[in-house]
Specification:
Elements: H1 9-13, H2 17-26, H3 31-40, E1 43-44, H4 45-51, H5 57-69, E2 73-78, E3 84-89, H6 91-94, H7 97-110
Antiparallel strand pairs: 1-3, 2-3
Length: 130
């Protein structure tokens, strides 16, 4: 007979609500890299698009709107000419900098660049390369 484990199974099911909210927002594809770019300095929309390879204009616009609604990013319009839109972090967004730096350091140690991620891998299961 297997030994019965003595633990509170309800405790295993609880996830910190703060962690849940953070990952609901920053865990979305592209959100973290956008914030990471803006931690360095404010940026125009076109500069953000160049800084985050692979993101479409529509996705960048959507993510910036979400980050703005969450109070992390401010959108500022320079009437020009030419009309330009820039984005910068709010105080709350800028407060993410230490956590982002820690995550970047953790990734350097625990997620080597040679790791192949499914979204970025050129080789997919079942695909034969010539």
């Amino acid at each position: 007979m297997a030994a019965e484990q003595n633990h509170d199974s309800a405790a295993c099911k609880r996830v910190d609500q703060g962690i849940t909210r953070v990952f609901q927002l920053l865990g979305k594809r592209w959100s973290g890299p956008i914030v990471a770019v803006l931690v360095e300095q404010p940026a125009y929309f076109t500069d953000l698009r160049r800084a985050v390879p692979g993101i479409s204009e529509r996705m960048l616009s959507d993510r910036l709107a979400e980050l703005g609604a969450a109070g992390l990013v401010l959108r500022e319009v320079d009437e020009g000419p030419p009309l330009r839109v820039s984005y910068r972090l709010t105080e709350a967004g800028a407060a993410l900098e230490p956590a982002l730096r820690e995550l970047a350091q953790w990734a350097k140690v625990h997620l080597p660049e040679s790791s192949a991620w499914p979204e970025t891998s050129l080789e997919r299961p079942g695909r034969v390369r010539a």
